Each structure stands twice: as C-alpha cells, then as structure tokens.
Amino acid sequence: MTTIREDDLIQSIADSLQYISYYHPVDYLKALGAAYEQEQSPAARDAIAQILTNSRLCAEGRRPICQDTGIVNVFLKVGMDVRFDTRRPLEDVINEGVRRAYLDPDNPLRASILADPAGRRTNTKDNTPAVIHVSLVQGNTVDVTVAAKGGGSENKSKFVMLNPSDSIVDWVLKTVPTMGAGWCPPGMLGLGIGGTAEKAMLMAKESLMDPIDMTALKARGPKNRIEELRIELFDKVNALGIGAQGLGGLSTVLDVKILDYPTHAASLPVAMIPNCAATRHAHFVLDGSGPASLAPPSLEDWPQVSWHASPNARRVDLSRVDAAEVASWKPGETLLLNGKLLTGRDAAHKKIADLFARGEPLPAGLDFHNRFIYYVGPVDPVRDEVVGPAGPTTATRMDKFTEMMLDKTGLLGMIGKAERGPVAIEAIRRHRSVYLIAVGGAAYLVSKAIRASRVVAFPEMGMEAVYEFDVQDMPVTVAVDSQGQSVHETGPAEWRIRIGKMPVKA
C-alpha cells in the first residue's frame, strides 16, 4: 500500500501549473519549428516566428506564454493500492494546489474562472475550481496529467451525433472552417469517437495530452484504421489553407489525435476539441516518495528563430492617426503602433452598453473618440514590469457591440485576434473603421511593447477593467480594412488554391 501525502499532491499540482505556464512541451516546439521552416506564407511565417520568440522569452523569464492562463483540467489515474493521507476531499486538495499556483507572487497567473456562470459571473479570484477526472486502476501509484486550457480554443469545441453511415472526415472538413482562428492555430485537433456524448467529449480532451508524433507516424505508416484517419485528417485539414492565426498558409494543425470507444449500433458520437498555440500540459507520477519533480527543458530545445519587425512595416503614431490614414491601410499589411490606446473586453463592453441604455455618460476620463481599443485582459505585473503578458482575446465576442462602439463613441479602430463576423465587418465598412490583429500565443512578446499602463475605468473588474496602454512598436496586422475586406477570408482562400496546385508528395 502506497501512501500519498496531502502536501505532496498539493505541491505537485502547484509546481506543474507554474511549469506549464511558461514552458511549452518540447514536442510542440519541434513541430512548430518544422512548420516554420516549411511555411511559404509570409504572414503565417511571421506569426509563427512571434509565437516561437515569445515561447523562448517566457522560458527565460518564467512568465506566462499567454495572458489567458486557462481553466485547469486534472486527470488522475489512482492505483487501487494507494491511500491518501488527508482529511480533505480529493477535489479540495487539488484545488489548493491550483490556488497556490495562480496566486504565486513570483509568477501570478490570471484568474479567469467565474462562479454562477448563468447569473452574476463572479470571479473566484484564484482560478478554482479545477475540472477533475478520476479513474481507479491497478497499481500503487497516482498518475497525474495537468492541463490549462485557454478559453479561445475551448470555445471552439464541437460535438455531433452522426448517423453510423456518415463520414467523419466530411464532418471535420466542414466544421473546422467554421471554427475560425479564435483557437490560435497552428495547434492540435483532438477527436473522441464513440461511447456516448459525454464520453466522446472527454476522449477528445484526453487525446490532446498525447505527444505530437505525426511525422514519425507518417514515416512508419499507419497500423490501424484510427492511424489512417489521423493521417487523412491531418493532410486534408492543412489543405484547407487556414494557416497560422487564420492568415492563410501551409500549417493549420501540427497533429490530429483520436481516441475511440465502443458505441451503440444506432450512434456515431464525434467530438472535436482544438488545442491552441499556448499548448500547456504536463504529466507526472506520485509514488509516495515526495512531490513530483519536473525537469526544465534545455534552451537548446527551442528552434533558433528570433522575430524582428519587417523593414516594410509601417509605423503609426496613435496621437495623430485619422480616418484618411486608416483608409490607406491594406489587408495583410504590418503596422507598428506607437502611442496610447485603450483596452476593453466583454464585461467592459457590456457595462458601456448598459450605460448608454440608461442614458448615462461614460465614466470621467474615458474617451474613445478617434482612438483604438485593444481587446485584452492582461496578467498582473511583477517586479519591474509595466504590465504582465498581454496578448489579444478573440474579437468575435465583441461583434455585437461593434456598431454601438463605432456609432456612439467615435472609436476609430479595434485590435484583437481572429476573424470578425459579418455584422462587425459591415459596421467596420459603414463607419470606415479598421480591425487589426495581434498574434494570439505571443502575449509576453506583446507586453514588451507596452511602456506604460494605467486603469482608466471600471477598476472593480480587475483584468477586465479599461486600461490605457502607451505602446512602442506594437506589431499588428491589418485584418479588416475600411472597405470591409477581411484577410481571414482572402488569405485562406488564396492558400487553399495554392496548396491544391502543389505537387502531391510521395
């Protein structure tokens, strides 16, 4: 009988969450490095370079890869010859580890978890509770996998009950383009096939914890139908031309993972969950000898890629920019922003909408006229930082507020990640506005461009407050121009055609 002490499990959970906040898995780094070398799309190649540069900076500085430090998922396989030395429920012990990790003063992680999700949506302040899955197995150890799943990718999860005669491949190829770029490709797709609805979703999530091995799989060849399906989906999804950040390119997925389970004769449940560029998971085993120890990767594991702004990038002075200058920007063009911009996410937009609905003015000092808003909820700063990692959030969540902001506040433009929907694009076209994107998965790199930060409004909302950032050469790409042309439509369409014309590899 093995005894697992409460403190050892708490410490192991806390240490692993800190570890995955700033270290990418090495298999992901190698796969992304290979994708960078093969990429032919300049925009996608630039985005991958930013992600890899950000990753190395985070490893060196031990700061989060992404400002969205995720909802914690814990998978435990508990040996039946194990006892826990604790008086608390297992969930309480695990959540204490989560709490310690997210409140660590040396590297505080953003608290994103809200209680009462259908009501007041109140932040729990420490990112608890985790989502915990426990299974009993033979043995005398506790096998633990810890993951931190970002909201942008989790929100793109899909599930369908197909007819047994339907094509899984056809459903995936039809569904992936509808997911947009909010899951920050290139990443992974996890599929769960069979079982029941909830079993399929759990398998899809679990499959994402497996190492990336598509190159090795292709080299040796498939041994069963699941491996054949993985290869087929990998090739066909990449042939969609979606590319890094949805800008169009060769690499949309680095691997496709599949777990299956027997199902009812009348059913074919299929779940699909993407993993984003901030792929975060770690595995350890507790055997009663103490807390787990996770060895840091070597800096030699990072591809030798260093992002630098293109010499063709246009510098923009945010204190002088006007509608005429905005009208000259073209989709796919790289800009370097300089000056002051405001921030705001879902909660701030909702609060502004409620003020307008009541006929009340904006808070004193909050003026959006002729300015840009950055959709971001930063991590708290430490030591000499102006702000913690501050990458963009998915812009489509603000689509329903776009007409209001452009019409009632005099806002000139917006910055986020991923595509905009038709309602937002029409508002941008009508108001001759613009939408820019920063690279999702490059949050620490973006924060290096922020030279000053102050809260302007709604301080009670924490990371969802409205800040004013003073930025220097903050890299962005024109995603929707003042005419309503979207690079997220033109980029993938162009690369889908190019890929279709490329010679088939033997």
Report on this model:
This protein folds into 2 domains: 2-286, no CATH class; 314-491, Alpha-Beta Barrel (fumarase), CATH 3.20.130.10. With 506 residues, it is α/β, with parallel strands linked by helices. The strands form 5 sheets. The protein has a 5-stranded mixed beta barrel. A 4-stranded mixed beta sheet has the order 6-2-7-12. A 4-stranded mixed beta sheet has the order 8-11-9-10. Helix content is 32%, strand content 24%.
SSE arrangement:
Elements: E1 2-5, H1 6-22, H2 26-38, H3 42-61, E2 71-79, E3 82-85, H4 90-102, E4 114-115, E5 122-123, E6 131-137, E7 142-149, H5 151-154, E8 158-162, H6 168-175, E9 187-194, H7 197-207, H8 214-220, H9 225-238, E10 253-261, E11 268-275, E12 281-286, E13 314-317, H10 323-327, E14 334-343, H11 346-357, E15 372-374, H12 399-408, E16 413-416, H13 422-431, E17 434-437, H14 443-447, E18 450-457, E19 466-480, H15 487-501
Parallel strand pairs: 1-3, 2-6, 9-10, 13-14, 14-15, 15-16, 16-17
Antiparallel strand pairs: 2-7, 4-5, 7-12, 8-11, 9-11, 14-19, 17-19, 18-19
Helix pairs in contact: 1-4, 2-3, 12-13
